[in-house]
Write a structure and sequence with these properties.
alpha/beta; 15% strand; 11 helices; Rossmann fold; ProC C-terminal domain-like fold; elongated; NADP; eight-stranded mixed β-sheet
């Protein structure tokens, strides 16, 4: 890729994007005002770390902006006088396209990746296609009126999945496994299930295939539903609004 990609804000999300990009391209340009984040960036090869947002803006073709939402418009306006980039990719959760466009004359794409970007496995919700986003994982393009729902499913569910794995790990420990054994088995089981879905399976069909009549799986699934599993998941996701 010939474009020079700059990342402004390299905390949890921005840092994951930088690392994911470095798996695919030779050079990334970055700035973060946080000393700890800057030290982390300094340890990476193939990252050009600038001393200010303005210096970054003068030396890139594409700006990925991953700073606090309440300051993003002001920062874009400040960079307008010195920028060389013609595309802004925002990862701010609740800043709309029209708000972003009010701060810059560049083309704007609104996105929500997730931290799996570090392994190029993000599911990124976006208002437009971009080959840059494809570098960090899969992309789902949605109109802005559906963006928030996509953002919740794509951005929040990794934490939900981690909570499930942790709960399963604790159950395994109670049943006599070591912590690592319980984690490895749980991760492997969930990863395998996801691969089946990625190859054309559906949740209902695959559940039915596993739940033999009178078997241990159907007993466990029935207990989940008795405790309100499906309803709790729906309520929790809707609460993310």
């Amino acid at each position: 890729m010939n474009q020079k990609i700059g990342v402004l804000g390299c905390g949890n999300m921005g840092g994951a994007i930088v690392r994911g990009l470095l798996n695919k391209i030779d050079q990334v340009y970055a700035y973060d005002r946080n000393l700890k984040n800057r030290e982390s960036l300094n340890q990476m090869t193939n990252v050009t770390l600038y001393n200010s947002a303005e210096e970054l803006a003068r030396n890139i073709d594409v700006l990925i902006i991953a700073i606090k939402p309440n300051s993003i418009i002001d920062v874009l306006k400040q960079l307008e006088v010195c920028k060389t980039y013609n595309l802004v990719i925002s990862v701010a959760a609740n800043v709309t396209l029209s708000q972003l466009q009010s701060g810059t004359s560049s083309q704007v794409i609104r996105t929500i990746p997730n931290t799996a970007a570090i392994l190029n496995k993000s599911i990124t919700i976006s208002t437009a296609e971009s080959p840059i986003l494809s570098l960090i994982g899969d992309v789902v393009v949605l109109p802005e009126e559906k963006f928030h729902a996509g953002m919740i499913l794509g951005g929040c569910q990794p934490a939900f999945a981690m909570k499930y794995i942790r709960a399963a790990q604790l159950a395994g420990i109670e049943m006599g496994l070591t912590s690592q054994q319980a984690q490895d088995i749980s991760v492997g089981a969930v990863s395998g299930a996801m691969e089946i879905l990625n190859h054309g399976g559906t949740p209902d069909l695959e559940c039915n295939r596993v739940m033999s009549p009178g078997g241990v799986t159907v007993k466990g699934v029935n207990k989940l539903e008795e405790l309100g599993f499906t309803g709790v998941v729906i309520q929790a996701l809707k609460a993310c609004k």
